[in-house]
Design brief:
Keywords: Amino-acid biosynthesis, Aromatic amino acid biosynthesis, Lyase. Catalyzes a trans-dehydration via an enolate intermediate. It catalyses: 3-dehydroquinate = 3-dehydroshikimate + H2O. It is an enzyme of class 4 (lyase). By secondary structure, the protein is of the alpha/beta class. It has a single domain, classed as Dehydroquinase, class II (Rossmann fold), CATH 3.40.50. Helix content is 34%, strand content 19%. It has helices at 21-24, 29-42, 55-67, 84-90, 131-143, and strands at residues 3-9, 45-51, 71-75, 97-101, 123-126. Strands 2-1-3-4-5 form a five-stranded parallel β-sheet, with helices on both faces. The longest helix is centred in the first third of the chain and has 14 residues, at 29-42.
């Protein structure tokens, strides 16, 4: 059976490639999705890739992931630092949940250093740029008992 992984992206990530490229790089979210879908196929995972600027929609998707018994890779973006409702929805997830940030939030100013989501995430990946998504998917495969072939 193929495991289902939701890759959920929060606010402003639809602007990747154009928004603050000195921080976030020039790779677009569409390019990241293509790379994720290709890697997911190789890892025998099903990948549901989504982005929203709406806190309510993100909460709905987390609840949907819970209902479908899916693992989650979550880049909550700005929702990381002050959204208790997103945190509460994350707490529903029973499968592994990896929090992902493109930048190293610990090197940024105080506003971006303390993610609420980190308190309950299985693991946190930050500071690897767009490649962090691929690292997160490989880590998820291992968390789900699959051993990726890196050769």
């Amino acid at each position: 059976m193929t495991d289902l992984v939701y890759v959920l992206n929060g606010s402003n990530l639809n602007m990747l490639g154009r928004r603050e490229p000195h921080l976030y790089g020039t790779t677009t979210l569409a390019q990241i999705e293509q790379q994720m879908q290709a890697l997911a196929a190789r890892l025998e995972l099903r990948c549901e890739f989504r982005q929203t600027n709406s806190e309510a929609t993100l909460i709905d998707w987390l609840q949907e992931a819970f209902e479908r018994d899916a693992a989650v890779i979550l880049n909550p973006a700005g929702f990381s630092f002050g959204s208790v409702p997103v945190l509460d929805a994350v707490k529903l997830i029973e499968r592994p949940l990896i929090e992902l940030h493109i930048t190293n939030i610990h090197k940024r100013d105080e506003t971006y250093r303390h993610s609420l989501i980190s308190r309950v995430a299985t693991g946190v990946i930050c500071g690897l740029g767009a490649d962090g998504y691929l690292v997160a998917l490989q880590a998820m495969a291992m968390a789900l008992g699959k051993r990726p072939n890196f050769g």
